[in-house]
Amino acid sequence: MPETITVVLVHGAFAESASWNGVLTHLHSTGIAAVAAPNHLRSVTTDAENVRRIVDSLGGPVLLVGHSYGGTVITEAAADDRNVKGLVFVAGFAPDHGETSLGLTNKFPGSTLGDTIRAIPLDDGTNDLVVDRDLFPEQFAADIPPAEAQIAAITQRPIRDFALNEPQPAPHASWKTLPTWFIYGSADKNIPPAGLRFMAERAGSLSTVEIGGASHSVMVSHPDAVASLIAAAVTHLTGPVSGEF
Predict the structure, then answer these.
(1) Which fold is adopted by the domain 6-238?
(2) I need a surface site. Which of 12, 40, 159, 177 has the fewest CB within 10 A?
(3) What is the pTM of this model?
């Protein structure tokens, strides 16, 4: 009988672990074990090390799920980790060796994120980046209730600019050898849908879901669809789960 797999959810830039609350509710209702990992948003290298520690602490097989920059982090965290059995990208980056999150953002036209970013200088010469709180709802979460989007704006975690510009360290991207699944919205203003489609096709995604009209916060606006894709990935890796969506 296959071992029970644990889903580890990794948030991206300008978000935090609570962005997975709806997805967690759906997963737990079907008996799928899942945890949301804190992401410090300091560098690809250190953020991936943090996720590896969480994977190691679980002591069994894991499905990694990454949103946005969290996709970059899980790509690195899964490198040479035998406990990681698959990757799900939720409006997430899937970089190859040497690529950066910022470079993939700009590979295709359409992102309006740059106009909304505000920089906070740090002592080491780098900057913390945040999305302007007044602009956040329209830029990041246009398809969720305004009051909820405003809360997300004021609870966002800043990302260090170095993290978005750090080339992917692992010499062999983990999505080249692990099964992958992708889900994203057609109205994503952070990462152009054409870029997300490109990464899904390049990774050989087993299932790619594009939700019409969904924003970059697709896991908040469509937690059922995101959870359903994750459940399908778990089923692919381990066999049927008990619940239904």
Answers:
(1) Rossmann fold (3.40.50)
(2) 177
(3) 0.96
